[in-house]
Amino acid sequence: MSYIQRVLQPGENLLYVTKLHWLVYGRAMALAVIAAAFVALAFDFGGDYQYPGLMIAAVFLLLALIAFIHAAIKRASTELAVTDHRVIFKRGLIGRYTIEMARSKVESVDVMQGLMGRIFNYGTILVRGTGGTLEPFRDIENPLQLRSAITAL
User: Fold this and answer.
1) CA 23, CA 114: separation in Å to the nearest integer?
2) What is the number of other CB atoms lying within 10 angstroms of the CB of residue 97?
3) What would the pLDDT profile of 67-91 be if each residue is shown by its tens digit?
4) N- to C-terminal Cα distance for the chain?
5) Beta bridge partners of 83
6) Suppose 61 and one of 24, 35, 83, 107 were both cysteines; which one would form an S-S bond, judging by CB atoms 3.0 to 4.6 Å apart?
7) C-alpha closest to that of 4 among 70, 96, 69
């Protein structure tokens, strides 16, 4: 059972649930491409360059694996939901960081998307609560739908 399901109050309904965008795997993908390039170069040049090229490729592949595991844990352990009463954000697997803000206390919701964010539909959401609190949620899927879910009353 997810964290959000466990903390719902009696009579509280989920309106929108989202997660981190799949591009959190971007670093792992880039490192894997570099590893593949070194493998291709090692076999292309061959001879004395083959063994060092394969060793460099192995290092990049190991780094890609570490980056992939990190991103997978980060994506799996981050939850973001909007209920009819509040906005809930949870991050962390062993240690936990949570934010819960009453929807009635939200003053504004800002969406920041660069060119890549517009193309791949991800971005950063800044939730401003009464009293000037500012909570950024980075690399969120469908940020415009999340904003609409938070601000729709």
Assistant:
1) 14
2) 10
3) 999 999 999 999 999 999 999 999 9
4) 28
5) 14
6) 35
7) 96
pLDDT of 39 strictly over 70: yes
For residues 67 and 46, what is the distance between their CA atoms, to the nearest angstrom? 29
Alpha-carbon gap, residue 15 to 6, rounded angstroms = 16
| pTM tops 0.90 | no
Where do the structural domains in the chain lie, given as residue ranges? 25-73, 85-92+100-153
User: How many CB atoms are located within 10 Å of the residue 118 CB?
Assistant: 10
Contact present, 148 and 133 (Cβ < 8 Å)? no
Type of residue found at 25: Y
- Torsion region of 92: left, alpha or beta (phi above 0 gives left; psi -120 to 50 gives alpha): left
How many residues are listed for the chain in this entry?
A: 153
Q: Are 141 and 128 in contact (CB under 8 A)?
A: no
| Average per-residue pLDDT for the chain | 92
